Amino acid sequence: MSVKAVIYFTEVPEKYLHKNMGHMIGEKLLATGLYKEYGLKLAFEPRAAGEHGKPFLTLQPKIHYNISHSGKYVMCIIAGEEVGIDVQEHKKVNYERMLNRMVPADMVREILESDQMEKAFFVQWVLREAYIKWTGEGLSKDLRKIPMDKGSYMMLEMEEGYSGAVWSRDPLELRWVHEEIQLP
């Protein structure tokens, strides 16, 4: 059985890149998606946060969402069950140091010696981030101990230089909606 989900996404306008506007744009995507999908106005929907800070709509227990932003992309997924999404712009980092905190020890060498090391690194990054956003555990969870066989995940098709993933309990039937977000 698959669950319907929709990803609202946009590109950050050039003049707002690197100005920490991702969160605000993500909130506007959420507001747009809630209105278009359910006729709900975000301003009138109270929210609370779970034990580790994952926000949820307190009066809409059947509507779940998650927001991610990196580089020029902002995405908000809305689904009928708990869901996590992560998008990452590929940036040079200390891959080995990060891998040692992110994946089981036996995977570190495998990724570092891969022909497509950067891509393999970011696949693991977005998968693990999407997982902890799905479960609501956040960074309280040891990323090296994520059970890759729990729930359902998929990689998102992204342009070169970006990776993205979603994770949920059940397989998702995704629909994409591009939105132009107007900022004041």
Unreliable segments of 5+ consecutive residues:
none
Q: What structural class is derived from the secondary structure elements?
A: alpha+beta
Order of helices and strands, N to C?
EHEEEEEHHHEEE
Strand content: 25-35%
Helices, by number, come to 4
Percent in helix: 25-40%
What composes the largest sheet? 4 strands, mixed
Round the Cα radius of gyration to an integer and report it.
Answer: 17 Å
**Shape assignment:** globular
Query: What is the averaged pLDDT score?
Result: 95
Count the E strands: 9
Give the terminus-to-terminus CA distance.
Answer: 42 Å
Structure, explained:
A 4-stranded mixed beta sheet has the order 4-5-1-9, with helices on one face. It starts with a strand and ends in a 6-residue tail after the last strand. The protein is an alpha+beta fold and 184 residues long. α2 runs antiparallel to α3 (105-112). It has helices at 22-38, 95-102, 105-112, 117-135; strands at residues 3-11, 47-49, 55-57, 64-70, 73-79, 83-89, 152-156, 162-168, 172-178.
Overview features:
184 residues, alpha+beta, 3-stranded antiparallel β-sheet, 28% helix, 30% strand
Give a quick summary of the entry:
The protein has about 180 residues and is an alpha+beta fold. It is about 30% helix and about 30% strand.
List the helices and strands and how they pair.
Blueprint: E1 3-11, H1 22-38, E2 47-49, E3 55-57, E4 64-70, E5 73-79, E6 83-89, H2 95-102, H3 105-112, H4 117-135, E7 152-156, E8 162-168, E9 172-178
Parallel strand pairs: 1-9
Antiparallel strand pairs: 1-5, 2-3, 4-5, 6-8, 7-8
